[in-house]
């Protein structure tokens, strides 16, 4: 072999190594292989990207052994991380703002939902003569868990009608069969919840929807702008100490989001556990079609979405002062940007 071709070969190897080097750096091993994620209502569409990443082995592919603990609502999932029994929350972005107002720094690092996908409806049996939100005064409203994002949406709807949270009673009903039973048996008069529960009640004529954020248009009407929803967030301390772990978690979620962009209803049915269907496959699929556009595309949290969330919370919670919140510390797109490039999401 001539010196010229040997040099060419050497140059080719060196060039390939130079190209591979950043990729190798980007794929550094996670600092923590075992990660526990707390979630509030895993079977709901709000957290579908998390389920997809788990069921299709995307966390394992990133070198992670992920344990997911399911709670009745996002506020309870958050408590697990605050209490130290879980590392990361799969929950609503606005909790990071709430926490900062209490001097606790948590940071969202990958978005799962670009709209809350929460609907609020009144029971057609308990309130057949319902005319407006003012009729809810003194009524019992079901939410996934007190303090969760379903509670936040209900508070926003009430405040716009001049009602305070104290004008109603909030009751935690979870996100699955228990929520259906609570409304149908008359334990509650209205409900703010997520799908598939709300579509199931709506299709059977059990509720009349009065506020809907399952579409981007509906979200714009309720919040006046884009409203980020489900995401992975953790104490800022955890994110700073475990950047490779956060990158691996983000990669898995964005891989799931990419898969969801082209997945058909039959793909979803084959992938999620049977129990998620709540005994009605057709209604589950009808729910999926309703919330499909609420699912994030690339894991990136929009800056104007963060501002919308702060404005919404401050509108009914006097303890949240807009000028005291540093939104830049409530989320980072650093990990999602890398994952988006990798998966062309």
Task: Present the secondary structure layout.
Layout: H1 3-26, E1 34-40, H2 48-55, H3 58-61, E2 65-71, H4 74-82, E3 88-92, H5 94-101, E4 106-111, E5 118-123, E6 140-143, H6 149-160, E7 169-172, H7 177-184, E8 190-194, H8 197-203, E9 207-212, H9 216-223, E10 230-235, H10 236-241, H11 243-262, H12 265-271, H13 281-291, H14 303-316, H15 334-343
Helix pairs in contact: 2-11, 6-14, 8-13, 11-15
Architecture overview:
Belongs to the bacterial solute-binding protein SsuA/TauA family. This is ABC transporter substrate-binding protein. This protein has 345 residues and is α/β, with parallel strands linked by helices. It folds into three domains: 1-29; 30-116 and 228-343, 3-Layer(aba) Sandwich (D-Maltodextrin-Binding Protein, domain 2), CATH 3.40.190; 118-223, D-Maltodextrin-Binding Protein, domain 2. Helix content is 45%, strand content 16%. It has 15 helices and ten strands. It has helices at 3-26, 48-55, 58-61, 74-82, 94-101, 149-160, 177-184, 197-203, 216-223, 236-241, 243-262, 265-271, 281-291, 303-316, 334-343, and strands at residues 34-40, 65-71, 88-92, 106-111, 118-123, 140-143, 169-172, 190-194, 207-212, 230-235. The strands form two sheets. Strands 2-1-3-10-4 form a five-stranded mixed beta sheet, sandwiched between helices. Strands 7-6-8-5-9 form a five-stranded mixed beta sheet, sandwiched between helices. Helix 2 (48-55) crosses helix 11. It is globular, with a radius of gyration of 22 Å. Mean pLDDT is 92; it is low at 2-25.
């Amino acid at each position: 072999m001539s010196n010229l071709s040997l040099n060419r070969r050497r140059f080719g190897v060196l060039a390939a190594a130079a190209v591979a080097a950043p990729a190798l750096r980007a794929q550094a091993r996670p600092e923590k292989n075992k990660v526990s994620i707390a979630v509030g209502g895993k079977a709901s569409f709000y957290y579908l990207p998390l389920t997809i990443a788990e069921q299709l082995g995307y966390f394992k592919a990133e070198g992670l052994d992920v344990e997911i603990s399911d709670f009745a609502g996002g506020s309870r999932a958050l408590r697990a991380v605050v209490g130290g029994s879980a590392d990361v929350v799969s929950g609503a972005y606005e909790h990071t703002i709430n926490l900062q107002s209490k001097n606790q720094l948590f940071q969202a690092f990958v978005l799962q939902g670009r709209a809350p996908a929460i609907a609020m409806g009144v029971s057609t049996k308990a309130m057949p003569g319902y005319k407006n939100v003012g009729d809810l005064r003194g009524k019992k409203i079901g939410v996934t868990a007190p303090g969760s994002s379903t509670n936040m949406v209900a508070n926003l709807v009430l405040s716009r009608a001049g009602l305070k949270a104290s004008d109603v009673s909030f009751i935690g009903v979870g996100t699955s069969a228990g929520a259906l039973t609570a409304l149908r048996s008359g334990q509650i008069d209205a409900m703010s919840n997520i799908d598939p529960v709300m579509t199931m009640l709506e299709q059977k004529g059990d509720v009349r929807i009065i506020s809907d954020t399952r579409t981007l248009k509906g979200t714009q009407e309720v919040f006046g702008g884009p409203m980020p929803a489900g995401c992975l967030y953790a104490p800022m301390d955890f994110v700073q100490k475990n950047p490779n772990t956060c990158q691996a978690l983000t990669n898995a979620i964005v891989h799931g989001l990419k898969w969801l962009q082209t997945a058909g209803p039959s793909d979803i049915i084959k992938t999620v556990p049977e129990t998620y269907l709540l005994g009605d496959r057709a209604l589950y699929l009808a729910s999926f079609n309703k919330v499909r556009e609420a699912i994030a595309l690339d894991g990136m949290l929009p800056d104007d979405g963060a501002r919308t969330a702060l404005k919404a919370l401050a509108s009914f919670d006097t303890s949240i002062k807009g000028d005291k919140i540093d939104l830049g510390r409530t989320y980072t797109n650093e990990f999602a940007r890398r994952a988006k490039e990798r998966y062309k999401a």
